Every structure is written in C-alpha cells, then in structure tokens.
Amino acid sequence: MTTRQKIGVIGGGQLAWMMAIAAKSLGLELTVQATSPDDSAVDMADRVVYGKVDDAEATAQLAEHCQVITFENEFVNIAALQAMLDRQGDGNLLFLPNLETLAISVDKLNQRQHFHDHGIPTPKFYAVDSQSDLLAAAEQLNYPLVLKARRHGYDGKGTWVIDNEIALLSAWQSMQQLPAIAEAFIPFERELAVIAARSESGDVVIYPVVETIQIHQVCRRTIAPARISPAVRAKVETIAQQVVNTLDAIGVFGIEFFLTATGEVSVNEIAPRTHNSGHYTIEGCQTSQFEQLLHIVSGHPLGDVGMVAPVAVMVNLLGFEEASGVDADYLAKREAIANFPKTYLHWYGKKSSSVGRKLGHVTILADSHDMALDLSDRIESIWYGS
C-alpha cells in the first residue's frame, strides 16, 4: 500500500486541532482548510488555507499541498468536490472517505435508506419534502415522533422531538421547510456509540462500545466501556462492522445507537469522521481515533484499539453563557479540574462561548466505573455548578 506524508483536512475546528497534534507525533505534515485565524487548529497545523468548509476553490488550494484530503465535518459541497475530481482526471486527488460514501453519510435520508436496504436496524422513517408529506408521515408514525433536517444538523440542532401537530408544524416552519425526515421515536433506555475504523484494504477495527449521556441533545459524558451485557456489546459491534463494510467506508466513523429496555439495538446516526464519543481514546486507548484516521489516510496499518485502563470517562466542557474572552474567564475552573488525579484536560482555545458550545473536554482514567463517575460528578460540579 502506498504511504502518504502530506495530509489535508477540510475544517479547522477542535477535531482538526486534535488531528494536528496526532500528526506531529506520527511525523506527518498536516494542512487544514480553516474558516478564520481564530479556528482551533490554525496554530497547530503545518499549513493553513482559508475558506469555508463548502468552499471548493479553497479546497483546490488545499489539494496543492497534500496527497490525500479527509474531513473534520460533513458540511462540504459534495457536487463541487466531485467536479474537482472530474476536472483533474489523473487520479492524483484522493478524498478519504470517498465522495460516494460521504454522499450517503452526510444526508440523513440517504443514511436511513442505506440502512433499510442492507437490513441494518434503524427507526422507521419517511422523507419529508412538503407539508403534505409531513402530515402523512405523522399519521403513519403517531406521536411522539422525531423531525430532522436531512443535512447540517449537529448537537441537537436540526432535530425536534414532536408531541403534537401544532409543534410539528411549528418545527417545520422554523427549519424553513427544508428537506427533512420524520422518523419513529425510539423509547431508548441508553444511548450507545462506537468508533469504527476501516482501511483501504478492508481491514476493520471496532473501538470499545461506549455509553453517551446527553443533556438537551448534546453529549455531556462518554463512558467507556459501556455498562451493557456481552450480548448487547456483540450486537453493536456486528452492526458497526456491517455499516462500514456496506458503505465501503475508508476512514474513521462515529456510529450512534439506541438501546431499548428489551435489549433491541438500532442505529441512530453515523458521522463520516472522528467523533465526540471517541475523544476518550486519546488517553484511554493504545491508538487514538485521530491517530487511527491518520494511519488510514497515510496508508499505514490500523493501530491497536485496546484500552489502557479498565475505565475511561470523558466529560465535555460546554459553554453555559454568551461570553468572550473565555480563556481568561474559565481559567480558575480549568486549574481546579486539572488537579484531579489521572485527569487529562483538553482546552480548544476558542475565543467565545455560547450555550452548549464545546469549549474543551476532560478524560478520566480509573480502575472502576464508580471511581470514574465519582470524579466526573465532581468535575461537572466545578464546571457547571450545583
């Protein structure tokens, strides 16, 4: 397999920042396509090209400096990227994951249709392109139901849990009647997630299954390994392998699941990139998700995904106010958190805070779930207050 030294990343946020840190440890050259000099990855990358994520002209500049391009987020213009490939025609421009995989992954309707076509368990769904589609779907699904924008949703944005027709029509108006999906609400007991990595040769590794704790549809904690039965764990791992193989996926994928009280597992969503649920892997696993993605796109063998401690818990440090100058304002809280044992704080260097914005995260390594969760409670009390 050909190895590649020069890697490009579309996006300059915290995921690209953590990838840039990993690239230095692996001796790889990383160029990022950042929106502004304030982006987290700018100071850590070897080179920066400026342009919005969907700016194909900026991506063309990025391509001049690298042998392969991967993605920090999925807000890209796939048609424009495909046109770049078609114009070049010599095979020297490589996107990983490839654009065919990306076209399925970034669109929630395409995701659901792919799962349905390949027998992968997923909630019942309907395409929504008009108000009549919306009301027809509601009649089939009953309430509560979930309404999601097909693209550009994250951290609960673009997603509504709907209890009645008035709320349904209000949500449809608030999303400006853009293409959407309506799907069955799953009365889950827990939300699970896993990072799956697949190489160009088709080798697959599955990281430990984790439990995610969501507050207002934003991940607050990740608990690794999840407190689930071996049978559920095996079911999740089997589905994750099926997802990446049927997508012919090359890269690192975050896959989110619902677990019901009766032990049923279904896929909620996939992300064609490194994922918040995998941040614990930086300290918690032999190979972090960021190193793993770089192994794959540079053409190196997959790394060991085993954990280095019995338990790892990641706590997101989310913004809880509208503020600027957060580096200084939150310094005392960060210093207090950093004093905990076997605790690793990652601060993304963002210049402003807003409610729910990811400003950093903390990973705790421990010998048991009880020890890790006790430290997590104490850290959250410092950050968020009682």
Number of helices: 13
CATH fold type of the largest domain? D-amino Acid Aminotransferase, Chain A, domain 1
The average pLDDT is 93
CATH top level of the largest domain?
Answer: Alpha Beta
* Beta content: 25-35%
| Backbone shape | globular
Give a quick rundown of the structure.
The protein is 33% helix and 28% strand.
Walk me through the structure.
It is built from 13 helices and 19 strands. By secondary structure, it is of the alpha+beta class. The strands form four sheets. Strands 9, 10, 11, 12, 13, 14, 15, 17 and 19 form a nine-stranded antiparallel β-sheet that branches. It has a four-stranded parallel β-sheet with strand order 3-2-1-4, sandwiched between helices. The chain has a four-stranded antiparallel β-sheet with strand order 5-8-6-7, with helices on both faces. Strand 13 and strand 14 form a beta hairpin. The termini are far apart.
Task: Please render the helix and strand layout as text.
Elements: E1 6-10, H1 14-26, E2 29-34, E3 47-50, H2 56-63, E4 68-71, H3 78-88, H4 99-105, H5 108-117, E5 125-128, H6 131-141, E6 145-149, E7 159-162, H7 165-174, E8 180-184, E9 188-198, E10 204-206, E11 210-215, E12 218-224, H8 230-246, E13 251-260, E14 265-271, H9 281-284, H10 289-298, E15 311-318, E16 323-324, H11 326-329, H12 331-338, E17 343-347, E18 352-353, E19 358-366, H13 369-384
Parallel strand pairs: 1-2, 1-4, 2-3
Antiparallel strand pairs: 5-8, 6-7, 6-8, 9-10, 9-11, 9-13, 11-12, 12-15, 13-14, 15-19, 16-18, 17-19
Helix pairs in contact: 1-10, 6-7
